[in-house]
């Protein structure tokens, strides 16, 4: 539990106000910096220096370079446009539906609250008793991978982090647009300073002048470029291994997973034992078996440390956020596939290690079956 999760209601209100204020101030600073960069790049460099240099420039041998000016202006405008488009799309989802979990009644305790539809899943992240995880501050259940955000004072689905620079929460709904924003932001900030540096060197050489606004552009773009490039590679790498930033910080821990189990029809055969692969693996760590009041039976497994239960392989991990086509990867329109939680197997896909764990248990319990495995096999048959 983080420090913020132990804090008082007053402290939480203060965190919330500070978070909301910073999510307004930081974007305003960025918009101001973009405005300044646009003035210097488009007007001072492209129009005033390259497209139609003043008589003073011409008398020093600086002639118009219309082709260069138009090419630079076109690329700059295109990059600004795509940066703004991805940013606005991200803000739209931040303000409308980033994946915020509804608040429960302040007096409700977990034994009184229904599972918020989580009973439909074959498997979910659970506590030691086999219940979904509970948030004391929201008074509601936490879906898999949800985390309580102190700035919003709410649980958010697949929360990555709260980013004042982007203008709000990075979660399952906004992660894709955040990655695109960083990618195009990295291209934009890199492109903005290189022509300035080249023509600044020319001006110093030919005219001996050192315009302050051109010089100011270099550290300004440089700082934002380092920030955007670093964040892009970090975020993209985390997504390729299917970890959010929060999960990366918690890496190494174990996960409790409750899996629905049913009694096997005595007439059906249990899966054939593959002694080689079975015996070569450790026995699954089962914390307990639970029978709920409605008769549903759950087996609560615990993963080994460092096992990522959501790792589906690099490409599939990226597809769950970025989309299933190249257009979806680069254009900020369609939402990520992972916001769809209709699959009864789980709220997100389960890794091979999780399925192996269930398979090993099933082989030791020939009279029982884990519904996650039956539905996985059925899904494969349907897709083949
Ligand atoms: Zn919460």
TrEMBL record:
PROSITE patterns: DHHC (PS50216)
TM segment ranges: 20-46, 67-88, 181-201, 213-237
GO biological process, one term: protein targeting to membrane
Signal sequence coordinates: none
Compartments, record wording: Membrane
Molecular function GO labels: protein-cysteine S-palmitoyltransferase activity
This enzyme's EC code(s): 2.3.1.225
EC class name: transferase
Boundaries of every Palmitoyltransferase DHHC domain copy: 130-250
Keywords: Acyltransferase, Lipoprotein, Membrane, Palmitate, Transferase, Transmembrane, Transmembrane helix
Reactions catalysed according to its record: L-cysteinyl-[protein] + hexadecanoyl-CoA = S-hexadecanoyl-L-cysteinyl-[protein] + CoA
A single cellular component GO annotation: endoplasmic reticulum
Protein's membrane topology: Multi-pass membrane protein
UniProt remark on domains: The DHHC domain is required for palmitoyltransferase activity.
Cross-referenced PANTHER family: PALMITOYLTRANSFERASE ZDHHC6, ZINC FINGER DHHC DOMAIN CONTAINING PROTEIN
Family listed: Belongs to the DHHC palmitoyltransferase family. PFA5 subfamily.
Name of the protein in question: Palmitoyltransferase
